[in-house]
Amino acid sequence: MKKRILVSLFIASVLLMGFTQVVMARGNTNTASTLTVGATPVPHAELLNLIKDDLAAQGITLRVVEFTDYVQPNSALISGDIDANFFQHIPYLESNADWTSRLSSAFGVHIEPFGLYSSKYKNAADLPNDATIAIPNDPTNGGRALLLLQSNGLITLRNGAGLEATSRDITSNPKNFRFIELEAALLPRSLDDVDAAAINGNFALQAGFNPINDALIIEGADSPYVNIVVVRRGSEQDPKIIALKNALISQKVKDYINRNYSGGVVSIF
Question: Does domain 115-218 have CATH number 3.40.50.720?
Fold first, then answer.
């Protein structure tokens, strides 16, 4: 009788151990997961790489995929190749009906003040008559460039031109500036061939500019173009996205931004 009891207890303990191991395995499967985020290199990928260890401590492996243009990250997100992207502002997201029907802003992180740069002139007032100015060829950033020039008295746009203003909306151009449109990523390299170029903050930083010191004119920190993390619609409250938000909207990231970008990136939190 005593022997049968001992055998029964042994079998029960083995079964219990096996059950515990299965539960633990299932728990590990649910906890350990990968979050793939597409980003342009500076500052977006840099900020994401900064928080990898913070997410790893929560069982989330953050995989950062770098893109050097403004179209592929949204295409990759729609196709499911990545889980989120971090490179754009809301006006850009809303410039494409297919994007807005499938994608959504999860949260905002920072502003990258847009600036006008030149390798030939030190002040906007020095730009000559008939100067050639390069601007981004996507509607929202092209409009952003024109609005920057207007806010500094260099051109005037028609009333109601809005965030997607084009050169056709210019009603006053005292110095007869000529505008050419280029892909945003190519603008820093165009400076030898034009008199000035309006460049997105991330590409200016990537090219080695200090926006505060090097831009002829620059947006203020109250710019409406907040850079956002974008996800597929319905994924805004996914636990991994919430964890990403908490890691990015942190004092650690704020301090890093203040320490490393000299005003070329401004946190909104």
Answer: no
